[in-house]
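As described in the Methods, two query proteins were run sequentially through the folding procedure within a single session, without resetting any intermediate state between them. The first query and its resulting structure tokens are shown here.
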Amino acid sequence: MKRWHKIHILLLFSFILSTSSVLAQIGAFNRAQKLYGEKNTELAKPIIDSVVLNAETTNMFESHTLKAFIYYDLYKKTEKDQINSPLRDTVLNAIKKSNSLNPDTSYKINNAKVLNAIIGHYRNISVKYSKESSLNYTLSLTAHQKFKELSKLYTPNFNEKSIDVEYYNTIGSNYSELSNKNSKNEADREIAKTALLKVLDIDQNNESATYNLGILYYNLSVNIVKEMTEDLNLNNVDAVQENTKKLAKQAEQLLLKLTNSVKFKNRATEALYYIYRNLLDAQKTEEYKKKCIELNIKID
């Protein structure tokens, strides 16, 4: 009997210690929550880190959601506009863990709010570096891919194709502008071409991509001849002429698709006039000269 009595005492003591540990961690959770509410997230951070690592509270979805909110506040202050953000990664991992523990409706909603905000931040970074004033294709594309990755996981009815069409049209248009100014800028031209072809892979009738790719080919053909003339390099005239003719023909095939377009009809017609003139196609040049006159398009 004495032996069993000792065992009961040990079990009771163990239970008391276990209960005390749980209460201590819940107390720590409440302190972290209070500090977060007071916007003192720097002090809240080590406390919540301890809570989520403790065996007694590691499986509480509340702990991981609170960690996500605390780290999100720190992330907003210092790393929101960065592509690589350890704080953002911690937030996403905390949300993922919380969602895996079957949170109640209110916590699910809070988790979704943080996720949607981060998805929006990736979108903003992607757009920022796709603009002509701050073009950086590597950063923009990385952010775009992260935006899609999270959206596909957490955004209902996410339409990846329409998002890609919009994104790659923007990239194609802006990098085409850079390429059109300098035919030797092969890197920008390749980015533009790849982006526009991606759009046409998704939507072969996309008028914006069709027009920009056509103009890209046309301007390249013109600039190659211009630069050859300026450099007075006549050793490879035949090769250059063949290349420019090929590019002009590629432009022609694309722009012919837009001759009935409401948005691009005038611009396509004008471009085709100059293409045929450069190709020394007298019949087509005259035909498109008349079309330009009918559309009140001024030509040289």
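Immediately afterward, the second query was submitted; its sequence and tokens are:
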Amino acid sequence: MWLSLAVVPVNAGQVSSQSLRWFDGERYHQVWLSADEAIEFVPQGDGRALAATLRGAGIRAEAKAQAPGARIWQLQRDYSVAERRQLNQAGVSSVFYHSPQGGGRMALTGELILKLKQAMPESELEAWLSSRQARYQRVLNAERHLHLIKVAPGLSALEWAAQYETDHAVDYISPSWWRERVRR
């Protein structure tokens, strides 16, 4: 599923050699991390507080551009996957691309589409998710057992989906991507 939220008039960053796979319910896809960008959703203030939080986690970043609902951050260097998890804890997603050559930015807000193998009472589903550090958002299609859930943004969302996609109750888990609209 794609979310298209904003037109961001800034040149794309450098693509990292780090790539990851994700599942959409039918097939696996590969994405590449941006070597030098991250996205903050629903930015607060001018970004100084988040910059201080990131500095405290050992990540140097500077606000690069802002659009409705998102702020792009320029990272000082290509941080490792382990270091990028610190971004997720601060509510920031790494930027991803479809190919090693780049293209339009993509990011993970932390929303995942969860398809269960069979119906589960909402209270049971909420407890199941809570025990796995996730929150229930809403039902997308009750007949198809599709639900929208919330976890930490960025790499954490992909890792959560990969960890639980083989659970006996789960048919599949797919990330709900934010995608930059590119003017042609």
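The longest strand covers residues 28-41. We note this only descriptively and draw no conclusion about the first query from it.
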